[in-house]
User: Fold these one by one.
Assistant:
Number 1:
Amino acid sequence: TKITDHIRNANGKPIFSIEVIPPVKGDTLKNLLDNIEPLMEFKPPFIDVTYHREEYIERPLPDGTIQKIVTRKRPGTVGICSAIMHKFGVDPVPHVLCGGFTREETEDFLIDLHYLGIDNVLVLRGDPAKPFNTFKPKENGYSYASELVEQVANMNKGVYLHEEDTALSPSDFCVGVAGYPEKHFEAADHEIDFQYLKQKIDKGADYIVTQMFFDNQKYFTFVEKCRQAGINVPIIPGLKPLSTRKQLQVLPRIFHLQMPQDLVTAVEVCENDQQARQVGIEWCIQQCRELIAAGAPVLHFYTMGKADNIAKIAKEVF
Ligand code: FAD
C-alpha cells in the first residue's frame, strides 16, 4: 500500500511511523527486530529503513602513505525491508540514494524492490562521503535527488534506461523526498532550497518527510510556505526525542538545526542523562500533541537505534 493511501485511509486520524537504521556490519537482525517489536502496538502502517553507503577517513601514516579506514557501512536495507514485511506485515520504505550508485545500478535496485512487492521509496541524494565536504556523485550517477525522482517516475510510466521498447511493464512506486524546515545546510537561503524542493515534487514525488526539528513553529512555517508555493503533497514531520545531554550539541551539528532555548535550559539543569532523557520525552510529547492538533498526517519517529523512549511517547499520544 502506498504511503499516500495509508494517509487517505486514516481519514484524518494521525498515523504512527518510525525509521530504523540497519545494524552495523556483522551484527544480527534479531536485535533490530526485537527492539522495534514493542512499537507494533501502535500499528505503524509503514517503517522506513535507511541506506548507508561506505564512508572512510584517510589517515596519513609516518611513511607518507595514506591509510583508508572504513568508518561506516551499514548494508542490508533490502533484507531488512523484506524481514519487516514478513514479520510484522508492515509496509517497508527503503531509502534510495543517489550517492554511490550509477543510474543503472539504481534501476536494478528499484527492479528488485518492485519484485519484492515494495510500494514505497524515499529518494535522497545522500550526504557527502567523509572526508569530503561536498557531495560527489558516482560517475554516471546523480547529483540531486530530483534526478532520481525523475528516474522512478519514468519507471512508473514503463520507461527504463537504454530501452527502446516503450511497452515494458511499469513499476508503481509512491515516492517520498526529504524537506528541511530549518533549510538544507548547503542551500544559500530558504528560497533556493524551496525551489529545489518544489522541483522534486514537480518531477513526481508524492510526499515529503522532514528533517527532525524541536521547535514546531519551524514545521508550521515550512508547511505554510510549501502550500503558498503550490506544494500540496502530505508533509510528514520527522521527530526525534532528545535522549542525552550531549545531544544538545551533537544533533544541531549533525542535522543543522536549532534547539529551542526552553529545551536547552531544561536539559542544562539535568544532573544526568536519565533526567535529560525524561525532559526529551516530555518535550516530544508536547510537540506531538501540538502537531496532531494542527492536523499533521503522520508522526514519524527517528529511532536511531532506540525504541523504548518512543514507546513511552506513543503511549501518551496515540
Ligand atoms: P537534494 O534534494 O538533492 O538537495 C541537496 C542540496 O542541493 C540542497 O541544498 C538543495 O537545495 C540543493 N539542490 C537541489 N537540487 C539542486 C539543483 N538542481 N541545482 C543546485 N542545487 C540543488 N542520508 C543517507 O545517507 N541515508 C539515508 O537513509 C537518509 N535518510 C534521510 C531521511 C530523511 C527524512 C532526511 C531528511 C534525510 C536523510 N538523509 C539520509 C540525509 C540526506 O541524504 C542529506 O540531508 C543530503 O545532504 C541531502 O539529501 P536530499 O535528498 O535532501 O538532497
Number 2:
Amino acid sequence: QSSRIRNSVFLQKVTVAEEAVKVIGHGDTVAVSGFASAGTPKAIIPALVGRIHAARAAGSNFTIDLLTGASVSTETERMLAEVDGIALRMPYQAESTARQKINAGRMDYVDIHLSHVAQQVWEGYYGPVDVAVVEVAGITETGELIPSASVGNNKTWLDVAEKVILEVNSWVPDAMDGIHDIYYGTALPPHRRPIELTDVEDRIGQPHYRVDPGKVIAVVETNAPDSASPLTAPDAVSEAIAAHVLEFFDNEVRRGRLPENTLLPLQAGIGNVANAVLGGLDRGPYRGLTCYSEVIQDGMLHLIKHGTVRFASATALALSEAGIAELTSNIDFYREHIRLRPQEISNHPEVVRRLGIIAMNGMLEADIYGNVNSTHVMGTKIMNGIGGSGDFARNGYLSMFLSPSTAKNGAISSIVPMTPHVDHTEHDTQVVVTEQGLADLRGLSPRRRSRVIIERCAHPEFRPLLTDYVERAQAAPGAAGHTPHLLGEAFSFHQRYLATGTMRTFH
Ligand code: 0RQ
C-alpha cells in the first residue's frame, strides 16, 4: 500500500476495483471526477465496463446516468459508449463514439453551461446521485482529500453522493498539493453570499476536499498517468486569426479600453486557434498577463515560464505528454503560478463579470448578425457541447468568437445567413474573427453588423452570396424589419450542403 493514504479509517477501506464497482447497479446515477484529459478515474470505469459486459452476456440490461465535470478521457468516454453503458450523459463530451450514439438517439445528452452543473445537481434536477467516483492524489492524516489534476465538480459529487469510491492515484506528483483552492461557500438561494474573489490568484477556500468517511465504501489505489491532450502546431489559418486578435488588443490598449502590458484576464477555449493566440502573446509586448479560464494547456505553461503570464486560474490541466513532463518536473515553480478551482468558481458569472474576462472561444458558425452556433453541425447533429463558452461569453468584458472562415475544404462557410442552432445570441457576441479579418460588432445595429461581418470575416468566395441574400432581405417589400431575413431562404446554405455536399453554388 502506498503512503498516500495517511488515515487509518480510509486505509481499512482499501480494496480492488472489481470489488468496489459492485456497489454500482443498473439505473444508478454515477458522478465521476474528470475534466478534459485530467483526473478521470483510471480503475473503476474499466471494471464497470467489465460488469456491464457480464450483465449483457447474462441477458440483462445495465446502464448508468453519467455526470462529470466536462469531457473525461477519450478512452473512458469511448469504452462506456461502446458497451452502450450510458443512458444519460451530462454536461459535455467530445468523443466520436459517444457523439454517434447521441446523434442516433441512443444516448440522452443534456448539454448545459458548465457553471450550472453543480447547482442543478444540488437543486435535484437529476435526482439523487447514487455513487461518486473521484480520483484524488492522497488522503491526509485528518481524512481530507488532496485533489489531483482537475477539480471540476468533485467537491459537489463528494457532498451529494450517497456512496463514494475514491481512487488514490500515486502518479499525481506529491508536490501538486497546495495548487488547489476548494471553495465551500456556495449555497442555494436565498442563502447565497458574494464570492469574494477579486484577483485571479486569490485564495478563497481550502487546499483539500472534505468527505464524510461514513459514505466512502471503497478506496482503490492506482498509479496511472492522465491521458495526454493532443497538440498540433498552429497552421497558417490559426496564425492569421491570432494575428487579427493581437492587432485588436493593440488597438484597444491605444484607445484606453484595455490596460497596457497586462490587458485583462484571458480565457481561451481548447484547440489550435487558442494555442496560436497564446503563442502570439509571447511574442508581443505583454508582461504579467493573467488568465482566468477552464483549462491550462501547454501554451499557458510556456507563457508562465517566460513571465508573460503572471498567474493562471483554471479548473483543470489539459496537457500533452510533453506538457505533463514539463509540469511534473517543475511542479514547485508552477504551483506558485497556477490555481485550480471548482468549475462553479472558474466559470462563475459573478466572478467572470467582476474580473472583466477577455473571452475567446471557437465556434462552428456565426450568422450575419452575430448569432453563434458552437454545438450543432447543420443545426441538428451535436459536435461537443456548449461547455464553458456561454459562461464566459455572456459575462466577459470582451466576448470574441474565433473560427476559420470555411470548413471541410471550403465546402462550408462559417458565416451563414441564419444559424440553424443558437448557443450565443447576437447580444452575447461582440467580436467575430476569422483568418479573413476581425468584425468589431460593438455599438452596431443589426444592419451594420451584417455588413461588417460579411466584409471582414466571410471567405471571399461566399461574400457575394451573403451580400446578395442580405440585400434582397433588406429590400423585401414591407417585410425587412430591424433584422432583415428571407425566412424561406434563411437556411438555404445548409440545405444546399445537405443536398449537394457543398454550400457553394460555384466550382
Ligand atoms: O471537424 O476535424 O472532422 O474536419 O468541426 O473544427 O476548426 O478544428 O475548430 O477544434 O476549435 O472546434 C466549435 C467544435 C470548434 C469547439 C468547436 C468541423 C471541422 C472540424 C473542429 P473535422 P476546428 P475547433 C470553453 C470553451 C464549444 C465548447 C467551448 C467547441 C471540427 O470550439 O466545441 O467553446 N466549442 N468551450 O471541420 C460543420 C461547420 C463547421 C464544422 C467546423 N460550420 N459545419 N462542421 N467544423 N466548422 C473551454 C475552455 O475555456 C477551455
Number 3:
Amino acid sequence: MPFLQYRVNGFLITLEGIDGSGKSTAARLIAKRLQEAVPQRRVILTAEPTGGQAGKILKAQLSSSGGSEPSVATRMAELFLFMADHADQLEKLVNPSLQEGAIIVSDRYADSTAAYQGVTLRGVVPDPVQWIREIYSPWNRRPDKTLLFMLDPALALQRMQSRPEREKFERQEFLCEVDQNFRRLAALEPGRFAIIDASQDAEDVADQSLKPILELLEQA
Ligand code: TYD
C-alpha cells in the first residue's frame, strides 16, 4: 500500500475571497470556535502572504499602491514571490503540522495566487488561471475544504473605505475580475469549495463557515 505513507492526519481549511470580504475577522472567530468544538486537536490560524522573507517583500510591494502599470517582468516576479512564500509555508508549517494532526485555518492560500495573478498575468500567457494551477499541481497540498467568501466587489470596496491604507489590488474593476476567477475555481472543484455569504455580520459568517468544516471532520 505505497500511498499510505503519504496520508496526513490533520485537516487543511483555507479561506478565500476578494479584499474586503471579511475573511480575516471571520478567520479569527472560526479558529476560536473550532478550537472550542474540537479541543482534542490543535487549531492553527495562519495567513498568506506570510511573515517569512518572501512574504515581507510582497507586503512591502503591496502597500505601494499607485504608480504606472508594472512591467511583465515585475508581474512575473510577483507571481514567483507568492509561490516562494507558499512553498516556504508548506515546508515550515503546513506539512509538518498536518502530520502532527493539527487543523490549519489559512487566511488565503494557493487559490489566491490563481485568482489574483490570474488577473495580473492576463495577456502574458494564454490562460493564466489554468497555467498557475498547473504550476502548483505537482507540489501543492490541496486543501480539504476551501471556504469562498462571496461579496459584491462594490460592497467590499465600500467596507474598505474606512481602512487607513489602500493596497494596490483594491480597485473595483480588478476585484470584479478576481471575483470571476474565484467563481471559476469553485466551479472546477465544487466538492472542495463551500460558498459563504459574506454580506452578513461576522458572527453569522463564522456560524455559516463552521458547518462545512464540522461536516468534514465528522466524515473523516
Ligand atoms: P491579505 O494580507 O490577505 O490582504 P487582505 O487582508 O486585505 O485580504 O493579502 C494581501 C493582498 O495580496 C491581497 O490583495 C491579495 C493578494 N494576494 C495575491 O495577489 N496573491 C496571492 O497568492 C496571495 C496569497 C495574496
Number 4:
Amino acid sequence: GIIRHHKFEIRLQNVTRLCHTKSMVTVNGKFPGPRIIAREGDNVLVNVINHVPNNISIHWHGIRQLQSGWSDGPSYITQCPIQTGQSYVYNFTITGQRGTLWWHAHITWLRATVYGTLIILPKKNVPYPFPKPHKEVPILFGEWWNADPEAVISQALQTGAGPNVSDSYTINGLPGPLYNCSANETFKLKVKPGKTYLLRLINAALNDDLFFSIANHTLTVVEADALYVKPFETDILLITPGQTTNVLLKTKHYLAAANSTFIMAARPYFTGLGIFDNSTVAGILEYEYPNGSVSSSTFTNTSIKSLLPTLPPINGTSFVANFSSKFRSLANVQFPANVPKKVDRQFFFTVGLGSSPCPKNQTCQGPNGTKFSASMNNISFTLPTTAILQSYFFGKSNGVFTTDFPRFPLVPFNYTGTPPNNTFVANGTKVVVVKFNTSIEVVLQGTSILGAESHPLHMHGYNFFVVGQGFGNFDPKNDPSKFNLVDPVERNTVGIPSGGWIAIRFLADNPGVWFMHCHFDVHLSWGLKMAWIVLDGKLPNQKLPPPPSDLPKC
Ligand code: C2O
C-alpha cells in the first residue's frame, strides 16, 4: 500500500438550502465534506485542524483500526476532542476491507454537517467479484436543519423532550424538489443507456432509517459495510444510519430510455412514538443522448409525485425484516466467513428508550413529565470528561469509568409485552472488559417500554456476524439452534428489529476501547451506548501501541 495524506480544515462556512442561509461547521468549506479514496492496504493520514469554536473529533466509520485505536475518533471514548486552534493527525492502515465506508464528526450532533464518503478500492489489479461498473457514484443520504442542530439537541436535553426534526432529508446535501424553495437543489444522476453503475449508498442521516428506490429500475445489492455479500436483486432498499450498501444499477437500453428521466426517492421507516418527519427527498436519473446531452427536464411538484417510485408504508416492518434477511456473506474460498463456532462469553443486552426523573425545580416535557433517556441493560451511559482509552492505557480509571457493565439485565421482564412499572434508568460510565481473542456472542433485545422502535446498533473497531434475528422475546432454548453459522452477513451496523432481537458474534482480536451504540443521534445523546475494553494479547502484534504525541488533551 501507499501513504495517502489529507488535510481536514474544520471551518465555518455559509451554506444555503431551502432559501435559508446559515453558518455551519464544515470540512474544507464543503457540504457534504471531501471524499477520501484509498486502496486496501494503504496507510491513510488525515491532519484535522480545528478553526471553529466547537470541540471536534472525526470517526472513520467502519474502519477496523487494527492496533490503531487512538485514531478511531469518538470523543471521550478513544480521545479527548480537538479544541479550537489545535490539530490531530489520524493515522490508520486499511486491512481486509474494501467497499464503501464514511467518516463523520463524533461529538454531540456535529455530524449533521461534518461527514463524507470514504471509498476503499480493492488492491491494484484485484477485480471486484462482480462486473466492472462503467462508473461509480456515491449517494449520501443526510438531513438539513434550518436551525443549528447543536441548539436543537441541547434544547431537547434541557427540557427532557424529543428534539425537533430536521427540515428535509438530502441526497448528497440536496433536499430535492419536494420541499419548499428547493427546486434548484436537486441531485441529478446522468447516465448512459445500457451500462452498469455502482451506487455507493451511505445513510448519514441523524435519526432516520430510510427506504430508497429508483422508479422502474431494479438494483443488485453486492456489498454492505465494506464487505461483499451474495448478490441479490431488489427494487427497494432499507438503509439505517451508519450503514453503507453498494448496489449495481443497470441502465435501460437506448431505444427504451434515451432522453427519459426517472425519479429516485428516499423517505423514512419509523415505528416509534412521537414526532417524525414523513417527507421525501427526490433526485433525478437522467438518460443522456448519445452525444452526451440531456433534455432539460422540467417537473412540477405534481408531476414528480406521480413519478415517485413505490415505497413501503412508513411503518413497513415486514418489508424491513424480509429485506434484512437477504444479506449473506460470500463465504467462499477467497472471502471466507470466519464465524466464531464456539462462544467463550455470552451477553444479553436490552436496548431501548426509557426515562429518568425530572430534576427538582424543573419542568420536564418527556413522557409523563419525566426526561427521555435511553439505555442498555438499564444503564444510561454518561460520557466521562476525559477519554476512556487514555485512562485505561495509563492505568488511571479511577473516577473515569467502572468495569461493571452487567452481562444481563438486572431485572428481566417481558420486553415486548407490558412495560415494567419502573422504567427509570441508572446513569453510569460502565464498560465490559474482555481478554484478547475471546469469542463473544451478544443478544441485543429491543425493549418496547415507550413503544417498539428499531435501533441501528453500531460497533467500533469490529465487524460482527449477524447470526440470528427475530421478533418478540429472544428464546434462549430454541432460538440458538436456528442461528446461521455458515454465511451470516458481516457488518458494523445492524438494525435491531422493532419489537425483536438480533444475535451477533465476533472475535475480540483488536485491543483497545470500542464504543457500541445506537446510530440514531438522539438515542446516542440519551445514553444508548456502552464500551468494550479488549485487553492486549501476549505477542507484540497483539498489543495497542502507545498514543501518538499529538493526541489531544482534555
Ligand atoms: Cu458512525 Cu460511533 O459512529
